[in-house]
Amino acid sequence: MSEIISTSAPGKVILFGEHAVVYGFPAIAIAINRRVKVSIIEGNETSKSLFTPDLFPKNQFDLTNEHIIPEQLKAIFFLLKKTKVIERLSYGQQILIKSQIPPSAGLGSSAAISVSLAMLGTILSNQELQLENINKIAFEAEKIQHGTPSGIDNFVSTFGGGVFYLKNSLKRIDLSKISFKIVIINTKVTRNTKDLVLLVKKRYEEKKDYVQELFNEIKTITEQAKVYIEKGNIDKIGELMNENQVALEKLGVGHKKIIEAINILGNEGALGAKLTGAGGGGCVIGIFDSKEESSIAVQKAKEEGFEAFTTEPSKIGVIENGIKKD
Ligand code: PMV
């Protein structure tokens, strides 16, 4: 099966500010070097199909029959239609989505798919490749998938690097002075972002002063972190991650598996560790300045039954991987 064209885009981690960001406080996210790749390939079949081997147990879908497209693929289907990819596919061609990002774990897998597909559609339509436009199209799909997302995931996936998000304004952060390994531990405890956001809302309504105070703490932490990231001071970034974790636990989005994962990271020399994304399960991140220590931490986490891997910040946002001509 030969590849005709492909694009790819990165996942992300939220380093600081999750949950508080929903209430207008700042957050920091960075792209990671785990990516989604989407390609058009010549298949053996006569239909136009979608193949998603890393995402869903049933993984082959006929794109010519909208009525059988399952709910979890609605955003993907929307994009393929909006960008006229389905129209432009020839019968016998297949869209293949391959992902190195665990789905539904807070690592931006859906945004990376949306961004890659938005670029694929733009290339096929021979339109000028404007990243702003790709970001906008992907955001529409994200809204279908997640309701009222902040837009941080698709922004980071489109442009790569780091972003400081505040009240609908996304500003890039200079990552050139920092260098660290990130260990990601997936607790494999399933959680739902929407439910956790609601849980925090309930706490906010019940104990407004207390939660407001926590949000203010998180705001200070996030603002300080921006300065240290730009100065390249990873020890301070680690300390601030630990402080952010304490505030998140007080907010009520912790989990015993998150604590277990953080303890493994701490014992193996992480400079700081915290949950990333909505919490309640999902993924934990720890930063290391030593490659060896980060590899040992991954090993230890796996021995304890977690899924774990190392990654690094990535400057590379969405890219075209090349058009292969016959
Ligand atoms: O777990 P994720 O990647 O869906 O991140 C959720 C981050 C929140 O701040 C909890 C919600 C949001 O919309 O920003």
Structurally, the number of domains stands at 2
CATH class of the largest domain: Alpha Beta
Model regions low in confidence, pLDDT < 50 over at least 5 residues = none
Per CATH, the architecture of the largest domain is: 2-Layer Sandwich
Radius of gyration based on Cα positions: 20 Å
Bound molecules: (3R)-3-hydroxy-3-methyl-5-(phosphonooxy)pentanoic acid
Note the run of SSEs as H and E. Answer: EEEEHHEHHHEEEHHHHEEHEE
What overall form do the CA principal axes indicate?
globular
Family: Belongs to the GHMP kinase family. Mevalonate kinase subfamily.
Pathway: Isoprenoid biosynthesis; isopentenyl diphosphate biosynthesis via mevalonate pathway; isopentenyl diphosphate from (R)-mevalonate: step 1/3
GO molecular function: ATP binding; mevalonate kinase activity
Keywords: ATP-binding, Cytoplasm, Kinase, Lipid biosynthesis, Lipid metabolism, Magnesium, Nucleotide-binding, Transferase
Per-chain topology:
Blueprint lengths: L2 E14 L10 E16 L6 E3 L8 E3 L11 H9 L2 H4 L4 E7 L9 H16 L6 H16 L5 H8 L2 E5 L2 E5 L7 E6 L6 H14 L1 H24 L2 H18 L4 H12 L4 E5 L6 E6 L2 H13 L3 E5 L7 E5 L3
Parallel strand pairs: 3-5
Antiparallel strand pairs: 1-2, 1-12, 2-5, 2-6, 3-4, 6-7, 8-10, 8-11, 9-10
Helix pairs in contact: 1-3, 1-4, 3-4, 3-5, 4-5, 6-7, 7-8, 9-10
The structure holds (3R)-3-hydroxy-3-methyl-5-(phosphonooxy)pentanoic acid.
